[in-house]
Design goal:
alpha+beta; disordered N terminus; six-stranded antiparallel β-sheet; 37% strand; 267 residues
């Protein structure tokens, strides 16, 4: 989709910005598609062009493109098929044009490395665990994501085969869709201890939570910053802390249904 300064695009184009992460497009170059009927299906996986001018057809076909606006596209082959139908006045002399098959190869994207860091252990007075507020489980947790990419040498070493490409790491922003807090060791004794979070603030963010004696699972597509805020809200309470000397938890976050998983953070 092309953005035109000072122009208001139609509803179809605006809707596609939100829904069409991957599909076909016909670039709106000057004169392309003029005098022709052009139709996309809702997912933009099918493009239909109708007309009676072969030169305009040729030009339109040259401007068809494949778009993929996903931050981390799924790699692999995208198969294409072009079917052409000719309408003739004399059916006896009408041409039959065979289908054309092709494909587009989407390469493996640079994979993000999701890193959880913060205070990995802390001691608190027994009385703090017994208060209604309890103790913050991940008070200084920080979530960042980085990608590592190769940078080609510039200048004199550009054409020297002995000069190796260097690697640089860049911090990027993207969403998460799950964080799981697991109890390390024995399960929580729910008569004596619990993990709690302010549900009001959770609902404001559209993030959901479920908990059990095994820990807590937080789900919903949201930014890393939002997940940080939610994880800061998790509190551990113990009504009889004298009965337990040490309690450990493990935190793991992920995106795209587990496609990219963070390190294990122990708190």
């Amino acid at each position: 989709t092309l953005f035109r300064s000072g122009k208001l695009d139609n509803t179809k184009v605006i809707d596609c910005l939100y829904t069409c992460k991957e599909g076909l497009d016909l670039q709106a170059a000057e004169g392309v598609g003029k005098g022709m009927k052009i139709h996309f299906n809702p997912s933009q996986s099918v493009l239909l062009i109708e007309g009676d001018d072969i030169d305009r057809f040729d030009r339109a076909l040259q401007h068809i493109s494949y778009l993929n606006s996903r931050q981390f596209p799924t790699p692999g082959i995208r198969r294409l098929k072009m079917t052409t139908t000719v309408k003739c006045f004399n059916e006896e002399t009408c041409l039959t044009i065979p289908d054309v098959d092709g494909y587009i190869m989407v390469l493996q994207p640079e994979e993000p490395k999701i890193s959880l860091s913060g205070i990995d252990h802390f001691a608190r007075a027994a009385s703090e665990f017994e208060t209604p507020e309890g103790v913050a489980l991940f008070p200084e947790l920080h979530i960042i994501s980085t990608i590592t990419r190769e940078v080609e040498p510039e200048g004199e070493g550009e054409d020297d085969p002995t000069v190796q490409e260097s690697l640089i790491s860049e911090e990027i922003m993207h969403n998460l869709d799950l964080c799981e807090v697991s109890v390390v060791g024995e399960e929580l004794n729910q008569e004596l201890e619990s993990l709690e979070v302010d549900m009001t603030q959770l609902q404001q963010k559209g993030i959901e939570m479920s908990s059990s004696s095994l820990g807590m699972i937080i789900t919903g597509v949201d930014t890393m910053a939002s997940y940080e805020e939610v994880l800061h809200l998790i509190r551990y309470r113990n009504w009889h802390p004298d009965s337990l000397f040490d309690r450990k938890f493990k935190l793991v976050c992920s995106e795209l249904n587990g496609r990219y998983v963070s390190n294990e953070f122990n708190g």
